[in-house]
Write a structure and sequence with these properties.
This protein is an alpha/beta fold. The chain is built from 12 helices and 14 strands. The chain has a single domain, classed as Peroxisomal Thiolase, Chain A, domain 1. The structure holds oxa(dethia)-CoA.
Length: 361
């Protein structure tokens, strides 16, 4: 039996605050009817002021560790909204999870981030580079959304989901049977936060509003999302030899209910096996797949052994799909962690003292 990565834990974290379509329509030129019919979203969650991506990531990660009953030896954090441009957020998340000194890295693939991180983690396990990677997708999209932009402000929400993997065998429930990833950088201008990097530094004087916030060319992204998620799902199913009619759980990135319906219709996935939670949480970017999976698993709609296919599409442009057999896991959910107490750089230097070699005798 050949070795592969196996899913053994699933955790989530959603902020408490629920924002309905009506709430948004009170300050934006939109309506509950438009949002529901064009996107399928009824409400979304938003963090309290001061809560960052790492706070959600730590809780979701902790929940996955509890669900899996094991510790992790690698942390991959998929996010579009890191706590800051530098350093990466994953090492801090690992530290707050009590996983000091394990490798920890951010994965930046926007809404495809979770599937990308899953693919990387699965390859690391197969290569023997780690045994139990923790894959987290966490977003505070409200930190980059322009509240005055009705094209995007009605779509996105905050949240986090995490999956613990372990080394196992292809034939057991939970096995990640195949992952396929892709990108098309020619479309990089379709989904952007233009400022804050080396091209347009965040400290540049008078950065226009358009460049400070998230912007998306909705209709073209819609078209590409349907085409790419359909072809990527077909490729991954071909690789494992599953026909779409035998798929027992289809979980697409929760971008737009119309996109998800279109992809599943084109593939011929039975309507009984399409799962999602976009109505309740909106589009949570890199967190959307583990959040939707946890909902479906908690309600018993995905059963151990179910042929499950995950597919995502997002900025970059990027896309990816994974074929897995569903494991016997009970998802756990935790509320957001409190932000760590403020630490000055001087205190950091003392508290984070590097272990020293023993003094020579
Ligand atoms: O997660 C990463 C990947 N993201 C996606 O895959 C999202 C892809 N795109 C979409 O989901 C859709 O394109 C949107 C939901 C963003 C927009 O839906 P649409 O059906 O493509 O609408 P549209 O942008 O073509 O706009 C249609 C009309 C326009 O008005 P006119 O020009 O026809 O008068 C818009 O100004 O709807 C208007 N509109 C709105 N009206 C009320 C756009 N946003 C809103 C709004 N409320 N929030």
């Amino acid at each position: 039996m050949s070795e592969c990565a196996v899913i053994c834990g699933l955790g989530t974290c959603l902020p408490e605050r629920i924002v309905t379509n009506e709430d948004l329509a009170a300050s934006l030129d939109t309506s509950d009817e438009w949002i529901r019919t064009r996107t399928g979203i009824h409400r979304r969650r938003m963090v309290a002021p001061g809560t960052s991506t790492s706070d959600l990531a730590v809780s979701a990660g902790q929940a996955a560790l509890v669900s899996g009953g094991q510790i992790a030896d690698f942390v991959l954090l998929a996010t579009t909204t890191p706590d800051r441009p530098c350093p990466a957020t994953a090492p801090e998340v690992a530290h707050r999870l009590g996983l000091d000194e394990v490798p920890a890295v951010d994965v930046a693939a926007v809404c495809s981030g979770f599937v990308y991180a899953l693919g990387l983690a699965e390859a690391l396990v197969r290569a023997g580079a780690c045994h139990q990677p923790l894959v987290i997708g966490a977003e505070v999209y409200t930190s980059i959304i322009d509240p005055q932009d009705r094209n995007t402000a009605v779509i996105f929400g905050d949240g986090a989901g995490a999956m613990l993997l372990r080394r196992g065998h292809r034939e057991e429930p939970g096995a990640i049977r195949a992952v396929e990833l892709g990108s098309a950088g020619a479309g990089s201008g379709l989904i952007t936060v233009a400022a804050g990097g080396s091209r347009i530094p965040g400290h540049a004087q008078e950065v226009p509003r358009e460049q400070r916030y998230f912007r998306m060319e909705g209709p073209e992204v819609y078209r590409q999302a349907v085409v790419r998620m359909t072809s990527s799902t077909r490729s991954v199913l071909d690789r494992v030899g599953w026909s779409p009619s035998t798929v027992q759980a289809f979980i697409g990135h929760q971008a737009n209910q119309r996109i998800l319906n279109s992809v599943a219709d084109r593939l011929g996935i039975d309507a009984r096996y399409r799962f999602g939670n976009i109505a309740e949480v909106g589009n949570t970017a890199a967190a959307s797949i583990p959040l939707a999976l946890a909902d479906a698993a908690a309600s018993g709609r995905i059963r151990p052994g179910s042929r499950t296919v995950l597919t995502a599409f997002g900025g970059g442009l990027t896309w990816g799909s994974a074929a897995v057999t569903w494991p016997d896991v009970v998802p756990k959910c935790l509320p957001p962690e409190s932000p760590p107490a403020f630490r000055s750089s001087r205190v950091d230097r003392q508290a984070d003292a590097v272990p020293t070699d023993p003094a020579p005798r």
